[in-house]
Target: Acyl-CoA/acyl-ACP dehydrogenase
Amino acid sequence: MNFLHVERATMDKLVPGLDQALADRPLEELERAPSPAIAAFREAGGPGLLVPEENAGAGASPLQAVRVQRAVGARCPSLAVATTMHHFSVAGLVESAKAGTGLEGLLLEAIAKNRMLLASGFAEGNTGQNILRPHITAQRRGDRVVLNGSKKPCSLSRSMDLLTASVVLADEDGTDRLAVAIVPAKTPGVSVRPFWSTPVLAGAESDEVVLTDVELDPQMVVTTEVTADAVPDSLNVAGFLWFELLLTAGYIGIASALVERVLERTGGPGDDPARFMVDVDAAMLAVEAVARAMDDSAWDDTLLVGALTARYAAQDAITRTTRACVEALGGMAFIGSPDGAYLASAAAGLAFHPPSRSRMGAPLREYLDGARLRIG
Model:
């Protein structure tokens, strides 16, 4: 079948062996915790997908990366969600390396060669909280930076080698600024607590990571220009672009798994595949348009608004598609296998990730009126 063939070919090229490893296991096994999908991702070299080739990685372009994420989502929803957080963190290191001290490049090479997994401790999860105001604080104590707080949920919490976390750090003039800390998982004071209580997306290992008086070398903390006004700087704009596109592509993949089941189940000459596949394919084309633009356009507010537009449009497309697919599969499929109901539930998760459409209403209105884009 040609549905998803481009995405799976891209994954076979950049992460060889992963698609088959996932296809060989039933969905129920992949989605439970601990999930064998995470080990398969590591074994196939997935951690290096966005690491540049000069740092021993696959050097995937934005277009290639979103296609891989759709393919992953169609096989294992939990892995798509978990690896979005990893890739997002790696992309941030790639951007930091462009003006960094050289440490970032060495770290990227280690991630690719040693197949290290990065968990993302960036603020999200609390309704009504601005996602640029993290739950983890940082204080300068002599020649160290000390972190306290927690992140919940935090994907890859039990498999991570490194945690990249947004923190609040006061600079020399006392202004609180957003910073990014890189914390080895075995650092004293790092612990994991159970948090995720639903079976949906349990394989993403989204538990709580707690930091208690975690001491870091200041070189492991990258300060940004973001203050309390929540207007992202260039590093944060880049991060949000990657996050929104990779996340959306992964959830489109989850809905695509339902479409694939419908197409394989029906297949008669009178069946019309358009009503199942057009919405998700159109949503993916919007994601791909922004991904292509990342190659030759400025990474600015305009491009980020494009990514948010594609994401919110995909939410609506996924809702329509999953409803149509569950109905087409019919009651016997619902009774005979949990896959359809599970995929429909998992696909709905895109709406729960930041920034929500309701939180971005006022910032988008202000942007249209000529203001800088704030992240709600």
In short: The two ends are 41 Å apart (CA to CA).
